[in-house]
Structure prediction request, 274 residues.
Amino acid sequence: MENKIEITGKNGQRMEITEAEKEKRANIKKVNDEFKKINAEKSKIINEQELWKYFFEKPKKNYNKYMYEMLEFPEYLMYNNKDVDKYCGKWNEFFGNNNDIYLEIGCGSGNFTVQNAEKFKDRNYIALELRFKRLVLGAKKSKKRNLDNILFVRKRGETILDFIGKNEISGVYINFPDPWEGEEKKRVINENLFSKLDVILKTDGKLFFKTDHEQYYEDVLELVKTLENYEIVYHTRDLHNSEKANENIKTEFEQMFLSKHNMNIKYIEIKKIK
Ligand SMILES: C[S@@+](CC[C@H](N)C(=O)[O-])C[C@H]1O[C@@H](n2cnc3c(N)ncnc32)[C@H](O)[C@@H]1O
Prediction:
């Protein structure tokens, strides 16, 4: 039988473990300590640089590691409101061409917009997201593919008028937004969004909406009927068995809904008619 030794656990309790287990524990502790040290050093640098001010009211002891990683992709990711707002009405200057600009609100880790940017090199894409990790993942994918027609921006969808000019956008994608069951007023797609699209979306431009949520789908169809500047030009309760299935680019959530839950995806195209 293997010899056991007595040690004191994290909470002061006495435990008996083997030499091998002791060594394994020591290795895990070493890795954890190193990680904490690196994190603390990075947090110190971030505090010195005052990067936290862009995101939080007060400095913190430790930050989400993806917050620092955002700094590694200046050509693919903007997080500073001042930098972003400066380009209001001038996004074609940013991209260095006169190509159409498409916007995605709530892009997750960017699969949808990255694949679009790869497929349609003659279009520009701006993708909005709030979560640091998802923004970094999107930027990484874009850099890996050497794309020059895509930018990730840490901005709320509700603030588009702060940084997008009149008629600057040719199409808007909103894929699998939170349905906010019971708190529907918080949804990204509401009358307020359309009043902003009145400004930023070109006439004949479209809003493309995908969801797994039956009620959200129904509610958007009903809402658009009440809007004189917009018209439903296509809708289906089963995108993957529709005529649009071939051209459809799947998002991360879509992939998950399909593989785990085998759900029908609902889809609506809404055109701005004046
Ligand atoms: C359910 S996920 C869907 C992500 C992606 N579109 C997909 O289909 O895989 C919704 C995403 O929207 C982001 N989000 C939520 N509210 C937002 C807002 N007001 N503005 C921008 N992004 C938002 C969330 O952080 C989240 O990543």
